[in-house]
Design brief:
homodimer; alpha/beta; Dihydrodipicolinate Reductase, domain 2; 37% helix; 27% strand
Chain lengths: 431, 431
């Protein structure tokens, strides 16, 4: 090959980073790939917009067909975002025999298995490292580095915005709304932060990671999702007293062939490697039967880290082209998905209750837990300023999701409970 | 291919782990590789020894030629250790067109470039993930995941024994000798711990990581090595007071095209991600121009983690065989090695001195530092029980290795200094 031509869909911050890395590291690319690599055409919305990356105006186009129908373009890099149109473009590219690199988690979470199947049918590569970990090469580690092991647990802090917010809330004792505003002004949260703070972004990434790590098609709908917007300073503070750090944790768990996947605010025991992952950093913790504990840590987002992952994928695609093996390394899932029923999804839980300060209340409450097979690891009762009320914090041992839901229903019916202030998943410590 | 036959050199703890994983994960291997994988012959020293892994006695041999000359054996897995004989076996295997997976860091550190060249000439694969990180897929991450970035710094806790000892010394305030004995009785240190505690094991791994990360041939001799056997509880305690954790840190640093590689006991600032890596765990921290900070964490050794890395390498070798691209993905180094001169190797240093408690001593000492362009970040002076003496702790700003050596020479000549108790590298904090 004399040179390789890339078609780039999108020229936002990640797209600009990709252009810069391809230019700046041309020597390294030639060394690795064997020929020059150039970005031939770029799909943009507005060609006349001023940009902080130097690109020849002639490479810009607003017409995707100019790229998809160009037979000299070998590889499509998709960094435009969006789902339905983007999916159509990538399917067309694959049908035309073009290899694809994408950074699009929404697309991969919703249509990953369809796109991977299309790639396989057309003998094309589809790489998507940047869709999950920003700069963390986690897809590669799951696909290759830990390929001979049986993974039983993947836990991740996979959203930088929420980790930044929870770190600040924890360090400064500030309320959620105030820290969210600070994160927005620093560029760590978007104007509409819903997708991040409600856990949807993390859920998409966990669906992708679980699919790959467990070799089965996990859909976004299979992920139980709860966001961080109702977390209070009080719960963070009580968590600290009990030895826990509040984190938004994605968990994918496999017992035999049955799995559960969730994204939930979690009180994580301080000694867990994920508990010390701060600010906008991400990390994925993987437990394999043979390897034991491993963890991958790095920037979760950002223009250059994400662009690095995109270009590293590009290098793999180009090596495969040179070797004539494009699309031949894709694996279909080994297992059929089986989700765990509520009766066998186990976790510990933290309950904070405001109760009437009367004789027998504690006994009434604990009877409900006992009835549903839940025993306690930690109990804390504190008087409240508001007279006649007490605050009770209960941390259970492992309890099934079914029992947990029944306990809540029963607590809600108890006249002596003024309010269930909060409930969180707890991870770590004893049984 | 109907099935693939492996020749295993060595059946110690790692070799037994490899046999077990290949047996237990046969389904996964068939899914990934497309055919059964079996261990056909195993080189051992004593075939009649009783073993905790079930192998057919007929597969055992004491004659390496039975394996190397068997044309039906496609892949050699080397987990026997040793250097000269082992190198000869692997070179013979490569010449005979057999692909190789090795877990041998001594061999790769000393003869890695020669073996990789032989693999390339013979169109064979040579994979060596298990030689560095035990269960951490770091070789893969450097080779592929971060391939498009320019790495400027690799820092690693790459020896489990020393990290275990330093963690215990730090947590318990116990002296080195006592903790070493404890580590030996727990199986975390060998009867002759020299290679671990004197930093040689870590130096071998750093030579391998730096060679790959910087794409140049770094030899073991290029690594400046200092072990942990003279670390005292006092220095760990003072380090803590100043906000540092004592770790044996391997550092590979690139400025433009010049590099430095060392393994030294280091007072690492508590906020550094490596500072919280405890006990026998290992971690490698990588800084790339584009990606920023990433870290890979996991078990540094152990039979099953290392065996997992070996079998994951085996899967890659087998996939390459299936695709007909064995040996075609090896890269020769892109750069010629250039080592930094002492004048441009910079670091901060911690000095602990016992000095005569006289007028002008402090001024005499600091004058020596000033003469060699070293200024101070932290200063601590404490009275000593022994009358007439004081203890001084100095932490410098960045100082060249040349100046550092000159400072020591000058301090040693100063009559008012009773003893230079200890000197350590310091990492983190300000300039």
């Amino acid at each position: 090959m004399d040179s390789i031509s890339i078609g780039l869909l999108g020229l936002g911050t990640v797209g600009s980073g990709v252009v810069k890395i391809i230019e700046n590291h041309q020597d390294t690319l030639i060394h690795q790939v064997g020929c020059p690599v150039k970005v031939k055409k770029i799909l943009v919305q507005n060609p006349s917009k001023s940009r902080d990356v130097g690109v020849d105006a002639a490479t810009l186009t607003i017409n995707p067909e100019e790229i998809l129908n160009d037979p000299t373009i070998d590889v499509i890099i998709e960094v435009m975002g969006g789902v339905e149109d983007t999916k159509a473009y990538l399917l067309e590219a694959l049908r035309k025999g073009k290899n694809v690199v994408t950074a699009n988690k929404d697309l991969m979470a919703l249509y990953g298995s369809e796109l991977l199947a299309a790639a396989s049918e057309n003998g094309c590569d589809l790489y998507y490292e940047a869709s999950v970990g920003g700069g963390i090469p986690i897809i590669r580690s799951l696909a290759d580095g830990l390929s001979s092991d049986k993974l039983t647990k993947i836990m991740g802090i996979v959203n930088g915005t929420t980790n930044f917010i929870l770190t600040k809330m924890s360090q400064e004792g500030s309320p959620y709304d105030q820290v969210l505003k600070e994160a927005q002004s620093l560029g760590f949260a978007e104007a509409d932060p819903t997708s991040d703070v409600e856990g949807l972004d993390a859920a998409r990434k966990m669906a992708i990671l679980a699919s790959l790590g467990f070799s089965m098609n996990i859909d976004l709908d299979d992920v139980l999702v709860k966001g961080i917007s109702s977390i209070t300073e009080e719960d963070i503070k009580y968590g600290k007293q009990l030895g826990y750090t509040m984190k938004l944790i994605g968990t994918a768990h496999r017992d035999n062939e049955k799995v559960e996947v969730s994204v939930q605010p979690t009180l994580l025991i301080d000694s867990h490697p994920l508990a010390s992952v701060q600010n906008e950093f991400n990390a994925v913790y993987v437990y394999g039967e043979a390897v034991g504990e491993t963890m991958f840590y790095g920037p979760g987002a950002g223009s250059l880290p994400t662009a690095t992952a995109v270009v590293s994928d590009l290098v793999c695609v180009l090596k495969n082209m040179r070797l004539g093996v494009s699309g031949r390394n894709l694996l279909t899932p080994q297992y059929t998905k089986q989700l765990k029923p509520k009766e066998s999804i186990y976790s510990k839980y933290y309950f904070r209750l405001h109760v009437k300060d009367e004789v027998g209340v504690f006994s009434n409450i604990t009877a409900i837990f006992a009835q549903h097979r839940a025993s306690f690891e930690k109990i804390l009762q504190l008087p409240l300023k508001e007279s006649g009320l007490a605050e009770i914090i209960l941390v259970t041992h492992q309890t099934s999701l079914k029992d947990y839901e029944d306990i809540i229903k029963n607590l809600e019916g108890l006249e002596k409970i003024k309010e269930i202030k909060s409930i969180y998943r707890v991870e770590g410590g004893g049984r």
